Amino acid sequence: xxxxxxxxxxxxxxxxxxxxxxxxxxxxxxxxxxxxxxxxxxxxxxxxxxxxxxxxxxxxxxxxxxxxxxxxxxxxxxxxxxxxxxxxxxxxxxxxxxxxxxxxxxxxxxx
Amino acid sequence: xxxxxxxxxxxxxxxxxxxxxxxxxxxxxxxxxxxxxxxxxxxxxxxxxxxxxxxxxxxxxxxxxxxxxxxxxxxxxxxxxxxxxxxxxxxxxxxxxxxxxxxxxxxxxxxxxx
Lengths: 111, 114
What we know:
By secondary structure, chain A is mainly β. Chain A contains no helices and eleven strands. In chain B, strand 9 and strand 10 form a beta hairpin. Classes of the chains: A mainly beta, B mainly beta.
């Protein structure tokens, strides 16, 4: 059973701080990694994807991938109350289009 | 259309009944996915269509679940003999074919089996 693990949280950070969200995956064959944000009662929306080891930055968001450790993370700089949501980590294996999602980490940004 | 459209937004049905959930993907998107999401969980893959054909149906939990996409656009997820455990939000997503193009999700259909 391929697994994607996330701490369910809630992760609480003060406004303006850096939020660090972590994800581990079990299948070494995984090739693509995605972070989705999901507000309560809404559908997931893509924040970032990453394929290669290292960091990828997009505005206030940085995704980090370490395939040797089977670990992917999302950093949110200058966290805002509007960032309060559940963050879903998803993994795609080679040759497949389907995503395997973690159960998500709930982030709370305190004003 | 402008986004992925799913109907109905909510569906309450009695145990044992048959239901159909509809997904209208973004115009021109050839790839279509069905996921379901239970409370407190991430989306769980059900089936993926590339065009009209089901390219990967490995996530369908049993033979009560079936999906079609006859013209390569709108898809219908069909659930026979519904059970209370089928209650979840059913999410549809679509993407343009090729590479790791972004999959856009619809707002989902909340199915409640009573």
